[in-house]
Write a structure and sequence with these properties.
Blueprint: H1 7-18, E1 25-31, H2 39-57, E2 62-68, H3 106-120, E3 126-129, H4 130-133, H5 140-148, H6 150-158, H7 170-176, E4 180-182, E5 192-198, E6 201-206, E7 211-215, E8 224-226, H8 228-239, E9 241-243, E10 246-247, H9 256-266, E11 277-278, E12 281-284, H10 300-304, H11 309-317, E13 325-328, H12 331-350, H13 355-365, E14 366-367, E15 370-371, H14 381-391, H15 395-405, H16 412-418, H17 422-433, H18 448-452, H19 456-468, H20 475-489, H21 500-518, H22 526-533, H23 535-542, H24 547-551
Parallel strand pairs: 1-2, 1-9, 2-3, 10-11, 12-13
Antiparallel strand pairs: 4-8, 5-6, 6-7, 14-15
């Protein structure tokens, strides 16, 4: 598969076919910061970002224009936010206090949280805040146009609505319809309705007893916004958007995109952007203390606590937007994911990766903003996580053990720097993601009763393991030794294919070693565990000095 077959390149070619030569191309995304901004929202931003990047690779000037819909009404209090914020329902998001008591607003709190994740992911956007654009009158001309043509707007929207859902007739509702909703200057809620339109003045009333007039003249400061299904196509025309993805609900036959296509052309003389449907992205397996401050929401920061930024990009790059998926943060899933990523990186470095795989890797590790964070020295995540588990995240001990694994020589401080950001991810993984009941607790001293309780054959196997530790103190060498001992006990060569009897003996042997090392029958992979604790400590816990006595 060649680069041209990647999904973002295919969309870019489609956008280019309709683009004006030499004119800047606008790719848009938008989010309402009404609560923790989750992985599904990131799908929209990522889709726009990757298409913009594909257009830049083709030599075009591109802007990724991101609209913060922070002038939307506050609809409900999300999990993790003080229930007392119920009193702000109906207010503009940008005017509600910071839920954590900071100096900014409710909207700014969640925007800043999301921006921090985007910076790590190499995504740079040109941001537009609707809480600034609407009040300063940027859209007054477009609002007046919609008000003047309110009958046409109503007919367009009503034509897509389900029949029988309204008690009042369409004619009655049409006579009272206005596509602009003011925010009451007294109570700040949008529990209002326009009662009269004499361009450029809207007369309004609030259900809490307030009323007044609002000028929508050029240059007038206003407080209110167009209804969503008019607001969206208005901005397509205003910003000359060439591409913007949308969720499945917006692309439904009666969804916002269908209505917007007609309104943008017939009301505003613009053109609907090219688009693509994106599907749900979630998190699975994230337990423990991670992201408890946001009510367990599946936000990007949660994934970035255990996954390198380049790896997270790869998860989005390698799937077409319409494919839903969940980022599985269950311990074994995370380890498999790092293994897969490292294998891809090795193939790319060796020049043996397929064309599409190499292209996806490039899009994962770099963007037009520069290199994306990834580990300079890709030591096995399994090893780092195991060492972090055993040392309870002690960086100095981790550096000592990993340096030994790498053959020594590297200054430990420099090594710690080279291992970032993977090292921090591994520490979070071992100390926060893995359930406490599954964390490793190394024995403090040799347990002679455990060794004495083993059968003679297994005790001989433990002694053979202890004696062979220095033969090849590396992950492959220890792996070979661990699996070879039960074969040797059965008189078989190390490379023999184990039959059912030998496999059973291997399981018995592994459980015995685990009990001697961690007082449990399972734990981290034994080769990694041994490598983590060092040969001296391993021989001590295996009782190599007393094994002969125990067998007599």
């Amino acid at each position: 598969m060649g680069r041209s077959e990647l999904w973002d390149d295919a969309i870019a070619e489609r956008v280019l076919a309709d683009a004006d030569p030499g004119r800047r191309i606008v790719c848009a995304s938008g989010i309402s910061p009404s609560g923790p901004i989750h992985m599904g929202n990131l799908r929209e931003v990522f889709t726009t970002h990757l298409v913009a990047e594909a257009l830049r690779r083709r030599g075009r000037e591109v802007v990724h224009l991101h609209s913060w819909d922070d002038y939307d009404r506050f609809r409900k209090v999300p999990a993790g936010v003080d229930p007392g914020f119920e009193r702000y329902v109906g207010w503009p998001l940008a005017e509600i206090p910071d839920p954590r008591g900071g100096a900014g607003s409710y909207a700014e709190h969640f925007m800043a949280e999301f921006r921090a994740a985007l910076a790590r992911l190499g995504i740079v956007m040109t941001e537009v805040r609707q809480s600034e654009q609407y009040p300063k009158g940027s859209y007054n001309v477009a609002i007046r146009r919609a008000m003047d043509e309110r009958g046409f707007v109503f007919d367009t929207l009503e034509g897509q609505q389900t029949r029988g859902r309204h008690e009042r007739s369409a004619a009655q509702r049409r006579a009272e319809y206005y596509p602009f909703r003011p925010y009451c200057p007294v109570c700040r809620r949008d529990d209002t309705r326009v009662t009269r339109w004499d361009s450029p003045t809207a007369t309004w009333e609030c259900r809490h007893g307030h009323a007044g007039e609002m000028s929508l003249a050029d240059g007038a400061t206003i407080s209110g916004k167009l209804v969503w299904k008019v607001d969206w196509p208005m901005r397509w025309a205003h910003e000359a958007v060439a591409f913007e993805p949308a969720g499945e609900d917006h692309h439904a036959p009666t969804g916002s995109f269908t209505v917007g296509r007609r309104l943008v052309s017939e009301l505003y003389g613009g053109r609907a952007p090219d688009s693509v449907v994106y599907s749900f992205v979630g998190l699975a397996g994230a337990g423990g203390k991670m992201s408890g401050s946001v009510g367990g929401a599946a936000i990007p920061a949660t994934a970035l606590e255990v996954l390198e930024p380049a790896l997270v990009r790869w998860l989005y790059v390698r799937r077409v937007p319409a494919q839903s998926f969940a980022i599985d943060l269950a311990p074994r899933a995370v380890q498999r994911l790092y293994d897969e990523w490292d294998h891809l990186s090795q193939r790319v470095a060796a020049g043996t990766a397929a064309g599409a795989d190499a292209a996806m890797h490039r899009e994962s590790v770099e963007s037009s903003a520069g290199p994306v964070q990834r580990t300079g020295r890709a030591v096995s995540f399994r090893l780092l996580a195991s060492v972090a588990d055993i040392t309870q995240g002690n960086r100095e001990q981790i550096a000592r053990i990993v340096s030994h694994h790498l053959g020594g020589g590297a200054p430990q401080r420099a090594l710690l720097d080279e291992l970032e950001p993977r090292l921090t991810c591994a520490i979070h993984f071992a100390t926060e993601l893995v359930p406490a009941s599954e964390r490793t607790r190394l024995r403090e001293a040799f347990a002679p009763h455990e060794l004495a309780g083993l059968d003679e054959t297994t005790r001989r196997g433990v002694a053979m393991l202890a004696e062979g530790l220095d033969d090849d103190w590396s992950l492959p060498g220890l792996t070979a030794l661990i699996y070879a001992v039960p074969k040797r006990l059965h008189g078989l060569p190390d490379d023999a294919t184990p039959d059912a009897e030998v496999k059973a003996a291997q399981r018995t042997f592994f459980k015995a070693v685990y009990r001697l090392l961690v007082d449990a029958e399972t734990g981290p992979r034994l080769p990694t565990l041994l490598l983590s604790i060092g040969p001296e400590r391993a021989r001590e816990l295996l009782g190599s000095c007393t094994a002969a006595t125990a067998t007599s």
